[in-house]
Design a protein that fits this description.
20 helices; elongated; 64% helix; 429 residues; mainly alpha; two-stranded antiparallel sheet; 3-stranded antiparallel β-sheet; Arc Repressor Mutant, subunit A
């Protein structure tokens, strides 16, 4: 784009130059879609964030309302958008994307990303140093967690070698152990509590860890996913304890292991199989949810779950509200775009569909439906908890299916679909 030639240009003219070249870039790529530089961002904004008023769009793009009106009229003529009256204020109109406009938006919305790539092809030395600093800080924090975990395990009575191996597994939510009985081998409540803390840390977002020193620990307390994780663990443990006779520390450990998708256990599979069905059902729900996005956990992840629940709540409110009312979804003060909501719904649907298909295969081979479902959810979320099915006696075909299930769950489905599409395209040629 020739931006490298402008490195000595003063700031304001340089910004103007970038803006002008951005306009040229967009107009060149928008010709086939009958979109102009001024119309493109409005269409993308409406597609991402949902319906909005002309006044709000004018504020967002720092333009006067007459300019916005002209752009909206052009988009309306092309049937890319449509206007609806605001029942609360007759003087205002809400603008929303039509199905035709949504189709166009999907096809062209990656041009902004292409432009960003062009502008950031070469990182400056400062930017590269900042990247290295972030990486070093993250490594330092996890190194501290690991050293502290090893020391605490050792002080609690665990052999040094076991302390190292179990710390690595707990902080990475891996769940494996040097003993067949896993953490339950040690019969030590203090070791159980240390493991619980390490599992929670491993299931917490990297970003929250990165900010922990700078914010003096407030990043954890302020992190929505972390707060949700702690609340779920606490609430579920209390409810299950009141409704059963299971040892509290064993229950707390299993609940934490389930939602963090660690898969470590203190009870044998045969023992867990004898627990009441409603406890196992709740554990399945926890294994489906998983911990924080941006952590080492598997499953759906809490951010998607929160987004999905908020979307359902919004849908209910929209049904009960007058036509045309716009109800935004916000998480931690940030507005969630319609595109993000759609992606969340699609991912959860695909996730459950794969579980359903695998479940049918297990049932076809004669395995108990309930036990099969528990194990499949555990496989898909890369959890590892089991109630007696996943062992060396498993049918060879189901072993292969289980491997694929774990692989798809670990890669979060979409990369696998892209891979299969690429393979299909190769053989198609």
């Amino acid at each position: 784009m020739g931006l490298e030639d402008e490195e000595n240009v003063p700031t304001i003219p340089f910004i103007s130059t970038i803006h002008r070249k951005y306009g040229i870039f967009l107009n060149h790529n928008m010709k086939d879609y009958n979109l102009s530089f001024g119309q493109y961002p409005i269409l993308i904004r409406l597609y991402d964030d949902g319906p909005s008023t002309q006044q709000n769009l004018a504020k967002i793009f720092q333009l006067n309302e007459s300019t916005i009106t002209r752009a909206l009229n052009k988009l309306e003529e092309k049937e890319y958008i449509e206007k609806h009256p605001d029942y609360e204020n007759k003087r205002k109109n809400y603008v929303k994307v039509t199905p035709k406009g949504a189709k166009i938006a999907k096809e062209v919305m990656d041009y902004d990303e292409q432009w960003d790539k062009i502008c950031s092809e070469n990182l400056s030395e400062k930017e590269f140093e900042e990247f290295k600093t972030t990486l070093k800080k993250t490594i330092e924090i996890y190194l501290i967690y690991t050293i502290v975990g090893i020391i605490l395990y050792h002080l609690a009575g665990m052999p040094t070698f076991d302390s190292i191996c179990n710390t690595f597994c707990m902080i990475a939510t891996g769940g494996m152990s040097t003993k067949n009985a896993n953490i339950g081998y040690y019969h030590n409540d203090l070791i159980y509590l240390i493991s619980i803390v390490l599992m929670i840390l491993g299931a917490t977002s990297f970003l929250a860890h990165y900010k922990i020193i700078k914010t003096k620990g407030k990043s954890l307390i302020q992190d929505l996913q972390f707060k949700t994780l702690i609340c779920i663990i606490t609430f579920v443990t209390i409810i299950l304890y009141l409704a059963s006779h299971i040892v509290p520390i064993d229950l707390l450990f299993t609940v934490t292991s389930s939602i963090t998708t660690t898969g470590a256990n203190v009870q044998l599979a045969s023992t867990m199989a004898g627990w009441p069905s409603f406890i196992l059902v709740i554990l399945m729900i926890l294994m489906l949810m998983g911990g924080s996005s941006g952590s080492t956990v598997g499953a759906i992840k809490l951010y998607r779950v929160i987004t999905y629940v908020k979307a359902i709540y919004r849908h209910i409110k929209e049904i009960l509200s007058p036509d045309g009312r716009v109800i935004p979804i916000k998480i931690s003060g940030r507005r969630v775009s319609e595109k993000e909501i759609g992606k969340t719904g699609n991912f959860i649907t695909l996730y459950l569909v794969i579980i359903a298909i695998t479940w049918i295969i297990f049932c076809f081979y004669g395995y108990p439906p309930f036990d099969s479902l528990f194990s499949i959810i555990s496989l898909q979320g890369n959890n590892g908890l089991d109630i007696g099915i996943l062992n060396n006696t498993l049918n060879p075909v189901l072993k292969i299916v289980s491997v694929l299930n774990m692989w798809v769950g670990r890669l979060e489905i979409y990369p696998v679909l892209v891979l299969f599409r690429a393979i299909f395209e190769i053989f198609k040629k």
